[in-house]
Each structure stands twice: as C-alpha cells, then as structure tokens.
Amino acid sequence: MQSVTFDSITMGWQGAGPPAAASSLAAPEAWFVNWSTGTPFGEPGPAVNEFTGFNYLAVYDCVSLIASKIAELPLVTYRASNRGRSRTPAVDRSEYQLLLTEFNPDTSAMIAREAGIAHLLTWGNSYTQIVRNRSGSKVLQLRVLGPDVVRPVRGRDNAVVYEVYRRGTGEKLTTLAPDEVLHVPGLSFDGLVGYSPIRVAKTAIRAGMAQDREAEKFVTRGIRPPGGIKFPQGRKFKDEQDAIQFRDTFRRIHSTEDSQVNVIILEDGAEWVELGVDPKSAQLLDSRKYSKKEICGMYRVPPFLVGDVDSSTSWGTGIGEQKQGFVDYCLMGWVRRVECELKRKLGRDDPDVYYRHQVEELLRGDLLKRTQAREIQHRRGVITDNEWRLDEHLDAVEGGDVRHFPLNEGRVTEEGEELAPPVAPKAPPGAPPGMPAAPPADPDRADEQQESVRRTRLAANLRRAVVSAAGRCLRKEAEQARRAAADPAGFCAWVDEFYGRHALMIGEVLGPLAGAWADAFGGPGDYPARHVDRSRAELLAAADGPPAAFADRVARLAERWQAERLADVAAEFTAGGDPCP
Q1: How far apart are alpha carbons 526 and 303 in whole angstroms?
Q2: Torsion of the alpha carbons at 548, 549, 552 and 557, rounded to the nearest 10
Q3: Residue 88: in which H helix or E strand, if any?
Q4: CA 376, CA 405: separation in Å to the nearest integer?
Q5: CA 20 to 30 Å from 521, out of 4, 123, 441, 555?
Q6: What are phi and psi of 412, to 5 degrees?
Q7: Are 39 and 275 in contact (CB under 8 A)?
Q8: Strand (E) positions, 135-171?
C-alpha cells in the first residue's frame, strides 16, 4: 500500500490514498509523527497542530472572536433587478432560509457558519456539503464537513472532486462532485488548498504554549518570591555535606502540598531574606504578552479585543478606529471569500442572484453612530422616513415615503440634462444681515407650487380624518359583533337591527368628510353607504358555516377590520385627483 504524507504547512494530502493502516502507535510512520505533534524531528517543545493549537488561549480567543462575529451577521440572498438599480430578498430561493435559519435539522445557520469560519482560520480550508433534490434544482440541506477528512483532488478531466474519509480509520466514504461542496480556501499557493495558519505560525504558538507551561510551574511552586536564610556573622557549615543536610531538612520541614512555605522555624539567630522576583520570571511575563500580540497580528485582531488593554491605542487614535480596522482589515476578507463561493456554487443558475453579509449590523449596538449615519443618508435623500423606521424595527407612518434632498445643490438627469432647482423661500422681513435671499422666481410658477403644497396638505389632513373616523366606527362594530356571536341563532336578525341604527352614526361621522373629499378631489363621496354594505355582507358571510366555529369566524373578521379595512380606506382616499398619491 502506498503511504500518504502530509505537508507540515498546508496539511494538504500528498499521495493517492488515505492514511496508511500499517502505521501504529508502537511503530508510527513519519507522517503520523509530524501530523500528531506538529513538529519535525529534532524540534523540541509542545505539540502544535490544528487540534492542539486551541490549547493556546490567544489562538482560541482570536478564532472564536472572528468566527462568532461573522456568524452573527445575517447572510441574505438577494436578487438584483432594474439593471442592478434595485434589489429584493430572494425568498423564493431554496437556500434563502438555509443560510438565515438552519443548515439542516441538526445545526442552526449560525452554529454551522461559525464552525466553517473556525475551520478556515485553523486548517485554512472550509468544506460544506450541498445536499440537493434528485433534479438538482433545489438545495435541501447544507452540512459542514471536517477539513481533516476531506481531500480535494483533480480527476481525469482536470475537474476538482472531493474525497471524504471516515475519521479515525481512513476508510473512504464517498466522492463528491465540485457542485456538491462549498470549498472556501484561505491563502494558498495553487488556489485550491489553503495554507493552515496554525502550521504557518507554529513557532510562535509553540513558544507561547511553552511560556504558559513555565508560568504554570512558576505559580505552582509558589507565588512568593525566592528568598534565602541569613546566618549571624561567623556561623558557617562544617563542610558541604553539612550544608546539603541543612537544606534538605529545611525543605522537608517547611514545604507543603501546594509548594507554599508555611511556618518557618529558624534557630541560632538565622533570618529569612526575600530576594524579589527573579529576572528570569519577570522576563517570562513580558515575553508572554509579546507572543499573544504575534497571534493577534497573524489574525489581524486588535489586541484589546482579546484582553490586551495595554495596546488599546497602538492602532489608530482610539477604540473606535480599532473596531473599524477590525472590520475592514480582518472580517471583510473572510466575508468576501464566503460570498464569492456561495455565488459560484449556489447562485450560478441566476446571474441576478447574489449573497451578502449585512455587515452594518455591527453598528446595531452603537446607537449614536447608527443614528448619525442614518441621519446623513436621510438628509441626502438616500433613504426615506419609513425606510429608516423599518431599519429600526418601527412601523411605517403615513406620508413617510418622501425623499428629501438639499435645496442648495443642482440636480441632473441620467442624460446629463440639468433639472430646475427647488425654489428656496425668501428671507423673512427683519432677518439677520447676511441671510441670503431667494433668487427671483416666476410668479406663476410660485403660485402653482403654493397651490400644490396647499392641496397636498389638504389631502393629507382629510385622509387622516377619514381613516380616524372609520376606525372609530369599525371598533364599535367589531365589539358589538363579538357579543352578538354568542347567539348564532339570532345573529342575522341582530345584523339587520344593528346596522339600521349604526348607519345613522356612520353617515353623521363619515358623510361630511367624504363629501369634502369629493368636492376637493373627486372620488368616493358615497363612502358611508358602501361602508355599511360591506360590513353587513362580511358578517352575513361569516354566519354561513358550521355553528361550532361561528364565534371564532366572527372574532377573526373583527380583527381583520382593525387592519385591512383601515388600509383599504386609506388607499381609497388617495385616488381620483389626490396630488400626492
């Protein structure tokens, strides 16, 4: 059987098969020693590989930080339209919910994506199996594969396939086609298999792990600084054997299980003198900080994010700049790798589909910066009031879909034609000196604009009044209908009797408002009568059905009235001459 070796940096497979079964613990082959220890022969120190690297806290801190921050960002599938000028979430795509909610029934999307990024940061490669339906038109599941059991190889047609082996035995389980695997490599030599960051930085990691062991020994043998026993002048040992015997006796009497010196008994005028921390131990503490910074530099993580506050101002001018640098120089590189691979393997069938991490969510916890950014976008006309409110998870408001733009800037069309600037108001009488007055404007145009503004305000006020009045009427109807539903047998008679009286209230409340709208803009002047007819018809339709569920049907209808009916009213009073539909 041909033996298989591992490259000590890339962990790439060299050879044609899985690990040779002939290797054993009693007689391990060279590839097994290098793989298990992470050190070539002759190099002392702790074992360093992708598994043991997590024993070094700096590596774990950096990897877990990057992986968790990327995994917590919503990964949304979008579809571009209108020549790329607009985008909408592609909810019809099968992978939309997989990337947002769960990869498969066993793993949520965040946990699976976190594991994939962790593989990328340690092994240099991330593999995820794509499970499709038989026709290949729909993605059913995504399953994270361990990089230690996947081997990318080129077939006879030069296409890359992925061989999957059983962990521990080296048994080949299956071979996956290129479109069945999401493979995200890190920095690589051939563009196929990424370098393992752990292997690249194994010297720094091994040094840090060795320093941690020395620090552990220093703490274990006692935090008290070293000391010596000072004898009175003239007191000496008879010979070397006498000195050794005194030392051993002193250790036996005064040592404890935790290596702390407890109670010291000294005779003949002997004194205990503390010597302070030895220079070797002090140097060890400083070197541990340096090793931690090396790992932060490898992963481009600001040291303060992993607990090294001594370097909080070494990058930029403050914490805010360091956080932004973390996003720009660390996270974005990994994020774009993932997005490109998703487009290659999942969105190849639709050129308008793309995948995007919502990196702006990193500002979700900073209310001040988020508000400042939104305020600038709002002032420049990038977003509307309602778009801003929806981003803050607030309900949209009426009239909130209008964009604002600066009055002192010119505007041009796509063809380069200049648009007339909006008319600026004249400086009021008694204005402070220096306030610029508006340029002369065409009187007829100014009158038209004033009339347009007046009609817009009138329409908005009338619409608001109609919706408010209709809401009061519907609330009363819904309350009375729920009560009457307790008697299904007499419900139809109640409808006739109630709306015989309620029609008068609707006419008094909504009649003048509907008439005013019809006089100003034309349109639904007969709204009160149609309101009554619709309510009666919907209630009688709810009565036509099984008696057991009658009360529930009426209750659901009453709930819809509070939302759908009011929305219909607002839509009805925007047509027919409304200057601001």
Answers
A1: 71
A2: -130
A3: strand 86-89
A4: 11
A5: 441
A6: -130, 155
A7: no
A8: 139-145, 150-154, 160-165
In 3D space, the residue among 181, 538, 549 whose CA is nearest the CA of residue 342 turns out to be 181
Maximum CA pair distance of the chain?
125
Quote the percentage of the chain above a pLDDT of 70: 70
CB-hemisphere CA count at 13 Å for 360? 10
Query: In whole angstroms, what is the distance from residue 204 CA to residue 38 CA?
Result: 13
Q: Is the dihedral of CA 228, 231, 234, 236 positive or negative?
A: negative
Instruction: Give tens-digit pLDDT for 371-392.
Output: 777 788 877 778 888 887 877 7
Helix, strand, coil tally for the chain in percent (to 5): 50, 15, 40
Pairing relationship of beta strands 160-165 and 353-357 according to DSSP bridges:
unpaired
Distance of CA 7 to CAs 25, 197, 326, 417, Å?
A: 20, 13, 31, 63
d(CA 60, CA 71): 16
Three-state SS string over 219-288 comes to HHCCCCCCEEEECCCCCCCCCHHHHHHHHHHHHHHHCCCCCCCCCCCCCCCCEEEECCCCHHHHHHHHHH
Phi, psi at 357, each rounded to 5°: -80, 135
Give the type of residue at 474.
L
| Token pair belonging to 64 | 């877990």
Residue written as token pair 């993580």: 301
Neighbours of 576 (CB within 10 A): 14
Q: Can you say whether the dihedral through the CA atoms of 510, 511, 514, 520 is positive or negative?
A: negative
127 beta partners:
145, 183
Task: Give yes or no for a contact between 171 and 180, defined as CB atoms under 8 angstroms apart.
Answer: no
* DSSP 8-state assignment for residue 102: E
Adjacent-strand bridge partners of 411:
419
User: For residues 349 and 345, what is the distance between their CA atoms, to the nearest angstrom?
Assistant: 9
What's the token pair of residue 97? 């919910």
Q: What is the DSSP string of 347-376?
A: STT-TTEEEEE-GGGGGTT-HHHHHHHHHH
CA 518 to chain centre: 51
The dihedrals phi and psi of 451, each to the nearest 5 degrees, come to -65, -40
pTM of the model: 0.56
Q: Does residue 481 carry a pLDDT above 90?
A: no
Burial zone of 16 (CB within 10 Å; 0-12 exposed, 13-18 middle, 19+ buried):
exposed
Phi, psi of 6 (to 5 degrees): -115, 135
The helix or strand, by DSSP H or E, that contains position 108, with its residue range, turns out to be: strand 107-108
DSSP 188: B
Q: State pLDDT tens for residues 425-472.
A: 555 555 554 444 545 555 555 666 677 777 777 777 787 888 888 888
> 121's torsion region: left (phi>0), alpha (psi -120 to 50) or beta?
alpha
CA distance 522 to 518: 4
Residue 45 has pLDDT above 70, yes or no: no
- The dihedral region occupied by 391, where left means phi > 0, alpha psi between -120 and 50, and beta the remainder, is alpha
Residue corresponding to tokens 């000590």:
8
The vertex-472 CA angle with 498 and 492, nearest 5°, equals 20
**The two structure tokens encoding residue 43:** 């190099």
